[in-house]
Amino acid sequence: MLLTRIATFLIGRAERRVGVGFDYVRRIAQIDLGLLGRYNKIFGFLDPNTKVPAPAYHVARLRGAVAADCGTCVEAEINLALRAGVDVAFVDRIVSGDYRDLPVGIAAVATLADAVAGRRDDAPEARERVRQAYGEAGLIEIAFAMNGAALLPGIKRAMGFVTACDLDILRKQVRRPGDPTPRPS
């Protein structure tokens, strides 16, 4: 009981940091703390970001979440990108899928994420551009980011907690003037 209360407190702290509710994580904690521990290992897979610049990392995570069609997951990724200092207009372009005039490496990350996480396809040219821009270790970290961000919505969907994306609504959230910090939903 005490461990469950501690876990619930920590989940609440994570919700405030990310700016979205984690009802499904709370449910896991209520059911089995061992399963919660296994779930938490996924975040070790996603973080930390040490091999690529924040914009490249968050492009991969955003496009992975968009591919999985989970509104609160995309919202969380928007909040995390903004919190990491990624420009609001840049986040809006990535969420909308507008890669025109982006640096070659960033556009390649988005293209690779859309192919791999979105269409379950290969994109050898984009992969090579990512490799050239960020190295082999950067490619691997980007692969972790895009696929990890797409994995979490699958867990939520299987448990019955997923919400479908409405990218227009999420883009309006990004565009709110004067408020670059995450907001709880």
Task: Report on this structure.
Helix content is 74%, strand content 0%. The chain has 185 residues and is mainly alpha-helical. It folds into two domains: 1-46, no CATH class; 48-175, Up-down Bundle (AhpD-like). The protein is globular. This is Carboxymuconolactone decarboxylase-like domain-containing protein. It comes from Methylobacterium platani. InterPro entries: AhpD-like.
Features of this protein?
mainly alpha; single chain; 185 residues; AhpD-like; globular
How are the secondary structure elements laid out?
Elements: H1 2-18, H2 23-31, H3 33-46, H4 54-68, H5 71-83, H6 88-96, H7 104-118, H8 124-159, H9 167-175
Helix pairs in contact: 1-2, 2-3, 3-8, 4-5, 4-7, 4-8, 5-9, 6-9, 7-8
Organism: Methylobacterium platani
Protein name: Carboxymuconolactone decarboxylase-like domain-containing protein
Structure described in brief:
The protein has 185 residues and is an all-alpha fold. Helix content is 74%, strand content 0%.
Mean pLDDT: 88
Radius of gyration over alpha carbons?
A: 16 Å
Note poorly predicted spans.
180-185
Count of helices? 9
Question: What is the rounded distance between the termini?
Answer: 28 Å
- Helicity level: over 70%
The coarse overall form would be: globular
Following the backbone from N to C, one meets helices and strands in this order, namely HHHHHHHHH
* Main sheet specs: none
